[in-house]
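Possible regression after last week's pipeline update?

I re-ran a chain I had predicted before the update to compare outputs. Posting the input and the new output here so someone can diff against the archived version. Not blocking, just want to make sure nothing changed silently.
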Amino acid sequence: MSPCSSFLLKSCLSTRQSFFPTPRHNSCISCRRTKSARPVAVHPSAAAWLGKRWTEYQGASNWDGLLDPLNPTLCSEILRYGDFVQAAYCCCDLDPCSPSLLRLSGLPCSGYRVTRCLQATSGTRLPCWAAAAVPSSLSRQSSWIGFVAVCEDDSEIARLGRRDVVISLRGTVTFLEWLDNLRATLTSAQAAPFRPTPVHRSKPMVECGFWSLFTSPAPAVCLPSLRDQIRDEVRRLVHHYAGNRGPDISITITGHSLGAALAVLAADDITAILGCGALRVTVVSFGGPRVGNAGFRRRIEEQGIKVLRIVNTSDIITKVPGFVVGDQEEDGLCPNWLLSKTGWVYADIGHELRVRSRRTANVAACHDLRHYLQLVNQLGDESSPESDEEQGPASGWRWQAVMAGATFEYNVSNSFPHYD
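New output (post-update):
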């Protein structure tokens, strides 16, 4: 490791306490940085060739036939985007201005280059007495939340079948972000440009706290909102690459927890400003909470946005906020029309790949990003053709994977995947 990198790593370790401690955030420091320039082989199957079938793996056919059983190529793509989210957590402890941001966060040879770092501003304001009692590092209004990266390696572009733009967003870290998460009432989500909602349809609405983090600027430091930062960078990249008659361009937005919710909002906004069908926009989310109501889900579907949600059924975060009112007949306990007046009726958005781990009272462990990646990785191993031959004697604890309405049992080791 170079002296500069060594100094940067020591500096980030000394400032770790400035971030709100979470299991996901703590685990990112364990990402290994190798002395050589070789890539960190986290997922050996990550080099699967997509080629002309890339739209299929980006959800063009709603992942029909790829989730049950889980297609090994899709599995490797899910794990690859999970690595980008893990990098977003790691980058919280690094210098966002570093040109080697992905390399320092554990992705040295991804083929992508970070073009912009993203910050989110909380709309919540602490009272004066509370602001004085809370450390400034936990009560700051604006925080680094992710990055935009574009694939520029020719061999990786050929493997992917297109030039991929990734927007990676971390989960909750700061105290004010936790407070925003608790603002669970629904608020209007106006599209840009504005499109009137037909009278017979429900108005698109999203969770108030998520919308605030997505749209709030920080005028005191001349920082635009997260929405405007993403808009500007996507427009710039599309204008730069689309006019060169090069490969197709896709936009993939990935995130965990809070980042998963913001990813859906970003996809909705990007499609609105670029136009439906202009580019393939896909969301790959891990452990994401509910984002909006049925009207918002309808708008997402009509715009052609594809959302793949990886959900651990033991993760309580994926079952909040609010509650879901289905289209089935009312059970008589409370009329649906009355529930809709509470402002807490949400809708699940996108297609789900569900995994179920061992039941435990440890909520944080069920929500941990690395645990999600372990379960997906194991599911991909079980689904691959050679898995039956390589599978040894049954050991460890048993868990269930629930996909496309069916439930399958798999055997999982107790340990997390080894990062070489």
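Follow-up from reviewer: compared with the archived run. Residues 1-46, 327-332, 386-420 have pLDDT under 50 and may be disordered. Marking as no regression found.
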